[in-house]
Fold this protein.
Amino acid sequence: MNHIRTLILGGGMSGLSCAYHLNSPYLLLERSDEPGGLSRSIKQDGFVYDHTGHLLHLRNPYTLKLIPDLLGDNLCLNERRAWIYSHHTYTRYPFQANTFGLPTRVIKECVNGFINAQIDSQPGPAAGPESLRSWVLRTFGKGFGKYFFFPYNEKLWTVSADVLTSEWVAPFVPKPSITEAIDGALSDQTKKFGYNTIFYYPKEGGIQALAFAFAKPLTGVRLETEVTAIDLSKKEVTTSVGETLAYDHLVTTLPLARFLKLTKPLPLEIQAALSLLRWNSVYNLNLGIARANISDKHWIYFPEKKYRFYRVGFPMNFSTHMTPPGCSSMYTEISYTPGNHPDDRQAYRDIVRGLHDCGLLTRSDKIISQKVLDIPCAYVIYDQNRTPTVNNLLAYLESLNVHSIGRFGAWKYSYMEEAILEGKSTAEKIDGV
Ligand SMILES: Cc1cc2nc3c(=O)[nH]c(=O)nc-3n(C[C@H](O)[C@H](O)[C@H](O)COP(=O)(O)OP(=O)(O)OC[C@H]3O[C@@H](n4cnc5c(N)ncnc54)[C@H](O)[C@@H]3O)c2cc1C
């Protein structure tokens, strides 16, 4: 039996980064025939499709140097053009700072509600995470909740704002001041808010160009090798080809729930904790259109129920190399609960009808390419159980020299930069740096 010092499961950003930063022997096992995980790109009919939008929001000094080093000239920097579409009107992102152009009654409800929430300013609950509904009402008031936060988040997460907690909001939801909210109600203000005001993106090859750049110098990557069983007491992993590999350190980037299902022995309390993990799935329909410049935006949020998608984005505006000349492309995103996969024909009809309804597609537009990319594990659900459960599970695994990292390994709402940094810090821990 082969014995490997560090076995890495999964060749997405976190697994690749861990391998890239290790200074000791490792083997990375990836079930797909290409590296990248969720950061893979599909080339079809001359279009490049990512798994919805995968944009590089870099803040850390290390990644701000590493990514340009890896991609060289193949990198461009974009200033975010993100919008919301509601009441037949485009408003700038974030909604809470930009209601200009919406019907007066909507603006009134939003701004008055915001001011009242600030005047009433209540502290959050003393114990336990606050529900998203309570946090929104306390922070932004009823109007912003009614017209954006509740419908949008319930569409995205597939659970109610009472079930969702607000633990994940801090890095992702900008908080304007009252003055800024009033300015944005009275005029088309262009002030930028939030963590993602700019983003990097490869000029060519879609986001997978970054995965390929990470993988290029790696000698210990084995593709098309699925992990089928893990024995934690023997410290052994079995693969789809029937091989058994022994390890000292195990780094897993598989969805935590999936990893534990493949694992034995599992104490009863760990099995019970596992059953508390919840997640949603995303159905991503990508379309290629035979018309240039169908939109000048990067992406648009759709909070209203009449649109089945919660977001639509435009890869040709990330980089001009994403479509054939004279064409545009769109990614559309629908969330669903696992086991409730959308019917392809119905989803296509609903999406195309919605795109016509909001004017993104015109009657004469020709859809010349389409590609469904399914993301079975997309957003982990932050409910009251999630944090204590994940803390228990990760502590149990750490005690057995198993590092469960990345968006799905650590079962959290995170992004590629964090995956890359976690891969690096895990490698350093293993190397004893
Ligand atoms: C809809 C959506 C949009 C997003 N947009 C952005 C964005 O704009 N910007 C951003 O920074 N981040 C974005 N993210 C987050 C980003 O995708 C993740 O943070 C990042 O890709 C996580 O990388 P990972 O390596 O941890 O996981 P993954 O990419 O999921 O990699 C895990 C790997 O494990 C492999 N694997 C699974 N099971 C097995 C098995 N049994 N054996 C062997 N291999 C296996 C998989 O094939 C996969 O390659 C988005 C995520 C979603 C869902």
